[in-house]
Structure to design on (215 residues):
């Protein structure tokens, strides 16, 4: 039996994994923490890893959660790391993100979401149903600003090139947040967008269970 530790995407929680069906595995959810002042990504990942109680776990991360899984895997032994709608290194990051991280422009623009741009954000996230839009809207309203500021900074300035020995990547061909053109994925969901974990759950579930069966 595998011990699966899930990390959700930016500012979200375990609800985004609610449509997955995983048999014969022990499932755990790692919770996002509020960063301390000027906390490094390494130190933050160390605090996140403290929530793991099993040896050689399987880490499964969605979007920013996938990046965090890689940072945790640098510090503890893992059986495998599985990324969903995420990136393995800064080289897979879209140009606009790399440019923002290099120029530091994200420090000059208010990060709090405005109603005017929410439809654009929803489009990039690939939201399709009312359920998904309501969930993301609730995350926007409840997100901690200190966490938000810190997370956006570490995402845009992430320079990772290291990969765990056992790394699997599931990605959507229609992902607008992390476009497939720069990404080498093990499994590509043809109609999947960034939120395919919910609106293409059956396909993601099938791919994930096939990977887990090899471990």
């Amino acid at each position: 039996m595998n011990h699966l530790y899930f990390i959700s995407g930016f500012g979200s929680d375990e609800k985004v994994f609610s449509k997955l069906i995983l048999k014969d595995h022990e499932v755990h959810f790692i919770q996002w923490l509020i960063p301390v002042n000027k906390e490094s990504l390494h130190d933050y990942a160390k605090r996140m890893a403290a929530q793991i109680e099993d040896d050689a776990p399987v880490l499964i991360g969605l979007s920013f959660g996938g990046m965090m899984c890689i940072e945790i895997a640098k510090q503890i032994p893992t059986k495998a790391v599985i990324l969903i709608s995420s990136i393995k290194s800064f080289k897979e990051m879209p140009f606009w993100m790399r440019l923002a991280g290099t120029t530091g422009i994200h420090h000059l623009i208010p990060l709090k979401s405005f109603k005017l741009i929410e439809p654009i954000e929803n489009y990039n996230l690939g939201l399709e149903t009312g359920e998904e839009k309501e969930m993301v809207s609730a995350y926007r309203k409840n997100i901690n600003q200190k966490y938000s500021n810190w997370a956006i900074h570490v995402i845009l300035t992430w320079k990772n090139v290291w990969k765990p020995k056992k790394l699997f990547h599931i990605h959507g061909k229609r992902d607008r947040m992390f476009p497939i053109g720069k990404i080498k994925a093990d499994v590509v969901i043809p109609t999947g967008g960034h939120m395919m974990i919910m609106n293409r759950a059956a396909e993601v579930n099938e791919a994930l269970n096939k990977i887990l069966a090899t471990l």
Notes: The chain has one domain: 2-213.
